[in-house]
Amino acid sequence: MYKLRVIDGFSAGHQIKGYKGKCEDIHGHNFRVEIEVQGNKLDKLGLLIDFKLLKKYLGEVLDKLDHTLLNRVGPFQRQNPSAENLARYIYQNLSRKLPAGVRLSEVSVWESEKCGATYGVTSIAGCQAPNGK
């Protein structure tokens, strides 16, 4: 199994509606986004996917978020643009762009150096979770 990671970022404002504290007010972050893709087969050049192409796809997703008030973007008009929800949004939109044989395993969104959230799919074919499901 090969795994590749790419890091990018975007700047945006948001508010967490219903939060009792400063985060309910509109504020901004320089978000850092780290993604991991995986796959088993390399192409004839020995690449799972070209980093340049992977960065392009991630950039296309992040461009829709950059320099916006996230609460006005698509699903965030109905749900809070928390780091958790942003990670899932990026995961869902980026995974559609990847070629066959390349699977997005996780997306991490960092609001600061010390605070971030990760969304991903960790199931492995043929394995069961510890609870037997």
Could you characterize the architecture of this molecule?
This protein has 133 residues and is an alpha+beta fold. It has one domain (2-120): 2-Layer Sandwich (Tetrahydropterin Synthase, Chain A), CATH 3.30.479. The protein is 20% helix and 29% strand. It contains two helices and four strands. Strands 1-2-3-4 form a four-stranded antiparallel beta sheet, with helices on one face. The longest helix has 13 residues, at 51-63.
Tell me the strand order in the biggest sheet. 1-2-3-4
Supply the number of structural domains: 1
What class would the helix/strand composition place it in? alpha+beta
Termini separation:
24 Å
Poorly predicted sequence stretches spanning 5 or more consecutive residues? 123-133
| Multimeric organization | single chain
In CATH terms, what is the fold-level topology?
Answer: Tetrahydropterin Synthase, Chain A
Task: Summarize model confidence as the mean pLDDT.
Answer: 92
Rounded radius of gyration (Å): 16 Å
Shape: elongated
Element-level helix/strand string = EEHHEE
Beta-strand content bin: 25-35%
Q: Considering the protein shown, what is the CATH homologous superfamily?
A: 6-pyruvoyl tetrahydropterin synthase/QueD
Largest β sheet strand count, sense and barrel closure: 4 strands, antiparallel
Number of helical segments with 4 or more residues: 2
CATH top level assignment: Alpha Beta
Question: What fraction, in percent, of the residue positions are helical?
Answer: 10-25%
Number of strands: 4
- CATH architecture label name: 2-Layer Sandwich
